[in-house]
């Protein structure tokens, strides 16, 4: 009898109480790796340590592959640009902290079954490319335009829906001058690695990862809001299945610690010795600049201000923070929390939604301070 796509593509579901991480989630986790948290020390994440998230397959794009970016829809002059054409436009480099909207998902109860991130789906890179607004100006956006839809070269099926990876931005975001959305062809000064979108990707400073379409091949200006899967079905904040839900957009504030001391291989539990322990970490927000980071060494009961590094001028990148902690023998839970200039902060209790998006609950790092040794 019938062989249907849906047979290969299950609906979204929540894990049952006590249900452990499944083989399907493990398979996703081995493909889509996180930032090893000790790499929070680098201002710019070395490629290879930057987190990766790919819904389908990484397209095979060897160096000599011809690539064209089509710009069309509600424009006066549709464009078809190759990489040399793109390089002839003014070039901009922006330092951007990218975070997956699903970061924190696997900490949720109940757990949405999907890519099981703890807190490590983040990285910072310098992206170089052409401001999208210049390309759209060249193409001549028509007055009826409301959105811009971006299509990647990757193809798959998700919850029964076969699709190319596709996401849209409101026209005002796509054409903004500050920050500029980039059509990027380089990461940290080198051509994009395959897993980060070779040869072209979108970079939308301040927005969660899903907006930064990789392997970009088409830009379409539309006069109706985009209702594709990754816009209207996925990436919405819903507590109940039948809700329409708010769209996921900008990155909520988060602070993370560089894991202190040394780890146990299996549990990754941290071990320190008594005395002064220099804690450090990073904090970011896609909504407004981070203005305050606080640290707790008693599981969030009391908080002290950390020292924030002076403003480096990289508005869309994480900021470093430091705090001197005096460790005493025993068990401790370390936490850090960020607040931004608009007063957005981080909750101590999970912000639950069915997709497991934007869970910026305060990180908890159990540390054992040993007195022998
Ligand atoms: N074409 C395409 N673009 C994509 C994706 C994808 O699966 N296909 N994943 C998105 C998601 S969910 C995230 S979090 C970021 C991850 O970017 P990175 O792998 O470069 O860190 O890419 C986004 N762009
Ligand atoms: Mo993501």
Automatic annotation (TrEMBL):
This is Sulfite oxidase. Residues 57-229 form the Oxidoreductase molybdopterin-binding domain. InterPro entries: Ig_E-set (IPR014756), MoCF_OxRdtse_dimer (IPR005066), Mopterin_OxRdtase_euk (IPR008335), OxRdtase_Mopterin-bd_dom (IPR000572), OxRdtase_Mopterin-bd_sf (IPR036374). GO terms for molecular function: heme binding; molybdenum ion binding; molybdopterin cofactor binding; sulfite oxidase activity. Residues 275-367 form the Moybdenum cofactor oxidoreductase dimerisation domain. Keywords: Metal-binding, Molybdenum, Oxidoreductase. It comes from Streptomyces cyaneochromogenes. Signal peptide: none annotated. One of its GO terms (biological process) is sulfur compound metabolic process. The keyword Zinc-finger does not apply. The lineage of its organism: Bacteria, Bacillati, Actinomycetota, Actinomycetes, Kitasatosporales. Its cofactor is Mo-molybdopterin. Pfam families: Mo-co_dimer (PF03404), Oxidored_molyb (PF00174).
